[in-house]
């Protein structure tokens, strides 16, 4: 909407249209996707080492990297045509139907809100840890958790351009810090600081494995997939910016694919640094392994830099999660899947301000629990369910609107191979999650089933079915 | 009361102020604009494309 129209809305309150502001470019899309994920290199991925050893974690890094590359390719193609806030929710609405769309929307909101809670919880712990290292034990992390949520919500409330510009800056600093650390541990002088030969000589447990380097055998490698997700969890969040980018067909594929390349580099460097500096049995349970590696380097500069970078990565992740969760919630409100009240757009800042406000107490409440493992597990499981839907989504999309029938900003190569690979890897990862968090997985499935029943029997009557299909596409093939 | 105590109180206060500002602003906006206007956002409308189209056609 032009400024003239906005002035008119301000002065006369005549009905007009207030849409989200289209101000983002590929760099913001990159900042959103990588910003959400990069915290996973600073913490979390290393739990895969406890499951499958250092080599098992490397296999998980590659295999789960392949899973997310498929996710990025498929998402890039569909979102370059479905340029709507809500991302995968809006895609599901167009390709599958309301009940699936409702579930996908819930997966998104839960995945991002829980990840945001985990991020601020980590920031609180990092402040506490930093205070302890400066000689002041017993600092309460709660005020810092509350402050981070409030400050980032405020930033998002005031406008998407500034929120994601800040994300670009702090994400870039965090990414560069990994490269600086890699250079700082002298990668071309093996044995000087890093000790890969010694650290990777892991003896297998005789009753479980006879494969050198894999303490729990191939089953351990499979189990490590559930934490291998941390290397890349959230890159699909770039889709939520679809309605606010200047050119969806160009910016989203470019931002998402360069984001994925950045993460593959960051994941490989992270594994290499940590696997060569920390014993695998310590690495498998460390809170912040890159920060620990920086301390082991003996450099005060790297020590300080990695503390700052760890805080920045968690901040960028929380900031991106607020952006994404609020867009998904807003989008569901706009379609009346939730009360329409949530679909309000701020007339000055052009942000979904009520959705941003509504999600603050939820993130703070989960951040205050201190239950990092449970919170992040809920996020991972919700994300995985969303990924499992994507192969179905793209199959339906290509069948209903074959190539050439609508304009696409990007066409992913090799269809249907990426969809089939993604589906197989999702099933394998869900099995891995079941091995470690079977009860949580079943409890969460129960939650989504109950929510679906509520939607089908109570909420669906408010949905305007004719308004669901918003893209100016031809009638789908076969209809 | 040391530096860290002051920092904790400052964090509580700053967070509360930010949330209060957003809540008051949201209330103010609700009073100044009708719900029809605030919830008028439309999916699938590309304003930039429309503006470019209007520019091309000389309107």
Automatic annotation (TrEMBL), chain A:
* Keywords of this entry: Cell membrane, Membrane, Transmembrane, Transmembrane helix
Q: Where are the transmembrane segments?
A: 29-48, 54-74, 104-124, 144-161, 168-185, 216-233, 254-280, 300-322, 356-372, 378-395, 416-435, 441-457
Q: What subcellular locations does the record give?
A: Cell membrane
Q: How does it sit in the membrane?
A: Multi-pass membrane protein
What InterPro entries does its record include? AA/rel_permease1, APC_superfamily
Query: Which Pfam families does the record match to this protein?
Result: AA_permease_2
Asked if the record carries the keyword Isomerase, the reply is no
| Name listed for the protein in its UniProt record | Amino acid permease
Please report the organism this UniProt entry assigns to the protein: Dongia soli
Which lineage ranks, top first, belong to the organism behind this chain? Bacteria, Pseudomonadati, Pseudomonadota, Alphaproteobacteria, Rhodospirillales
UniProtKB/TrEMBL annotation, chain B:
* Domain of life assignment: Bacteria
TM segment ranges: 6-24
**Any idea which UniProt keywords this protein has?**
Membrane, Transmembrane, Transmembrane helix
This chain's protein is named Uncharacterized protein
Source organism per entry reads Dongia soli
């Amino acid at each position: 909407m032009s400024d003239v129209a906005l002035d008119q809305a301000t002065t006369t309150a005549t009905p007009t249209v207030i849409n989200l502001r289209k101000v983002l470019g590929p760099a913001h899309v990159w900042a959103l996707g990588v910003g959400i994920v990069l915290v996973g290199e600073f913490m979390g991925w290393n739990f895969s080492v406890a499951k499958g050893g250092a080599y098992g974690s490397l296999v998980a890094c590659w295999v789960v990297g392949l899973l997310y590359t498929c996710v990025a390719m498929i998402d890039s193609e569909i979102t370059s045509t479905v340029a709507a806030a809500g991302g995968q929710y809006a895609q599901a609405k167009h390709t599958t139907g309301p009940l699936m769309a409702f579930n996908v929307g819930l997966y998104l909101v839960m995945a991002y809100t829980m990840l945001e809670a985990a991020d601020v919880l980590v920031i609180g712990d990092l402040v506490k840890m930093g205070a302890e290292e400066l000689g002041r034990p017993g600092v309460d992390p709660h005020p810092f958790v509350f402050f981070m949520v409030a400050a980032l919500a405020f930033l998002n409330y005031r406008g998407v351009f500034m929120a994601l510009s800040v994300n670009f800056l702090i994400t870039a600093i965090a990414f560069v810090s990994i490269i600086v650390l890699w250079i700082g541990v002298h990668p071309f002088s093996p044995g000087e600081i890093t000790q890969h030969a010694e650290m990777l000589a892991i003896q297998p447990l005789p009753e479980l494995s006879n494969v050198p380097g894999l303490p729990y055998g191939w089953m351990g490698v499979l189990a490590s997939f559930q934490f291998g997700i941390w290397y890349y969890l959230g890159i699909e969040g770039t889709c939520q910016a679809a309605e606010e980018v200047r050119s969806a067909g160009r910016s989203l594929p470019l931002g998402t694919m360069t984001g994925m390349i950045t993460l593959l580099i960051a994941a490989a460097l992270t594994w290499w640094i940590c696997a060569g500096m920390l014993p695998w049995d310590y690495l498998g349970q460390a809170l912040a392994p890159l920060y620990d590696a920086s301390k082991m380097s003996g450099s005060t500069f790297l020590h300080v830099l990695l503390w700052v970078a760890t805080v920045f990565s968690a901040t960028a992740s929380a900031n991106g999660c607020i952006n994404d969760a609020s867009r998904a919630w807003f989008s569901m409100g706009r379609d009346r899947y939730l009360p329409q009240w949530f679909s309000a757009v701020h007339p000055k800042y052009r942000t979904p301000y009520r959705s941003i406000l509504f999600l603050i107490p939820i993130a703070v409440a989960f951040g205050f629990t201190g239950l990092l493992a449970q919170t992040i597990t809920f996020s991972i499981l919700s994300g995985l369910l969303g990924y499992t839907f994507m192969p179905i989504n793209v199959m339906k999309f290509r069948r209903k609107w074959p190539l050439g029938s609508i304009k696409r900003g990007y066409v992913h190569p090799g269809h249907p191979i990426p969809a089939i690979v993604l589906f197989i890897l999702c099933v394998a990862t869900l099995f891995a999650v079941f091995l470690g968090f079977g009860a949580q997985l079943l409890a969460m499935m129960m939650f989504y089933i109950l929510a679906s029943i509520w939607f089908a029997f109570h909420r669906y009557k408010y949905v305007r079915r004719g308004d669901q299909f918003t893209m100016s596409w031809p009638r789908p093939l076969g209809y | 009361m040391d530096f860290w105590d002051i920092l904790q109180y400052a964090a509580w206060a700053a967070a509360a102020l930010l949330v209060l500002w957003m809540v008051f602003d949201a209330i103010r906006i609700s009073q100044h604009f009708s719900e029809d206007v605030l919830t008028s956002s439309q999916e699938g409308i590309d304003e930039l494309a429309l503006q470019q189209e209007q520019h091309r056609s000389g309107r």
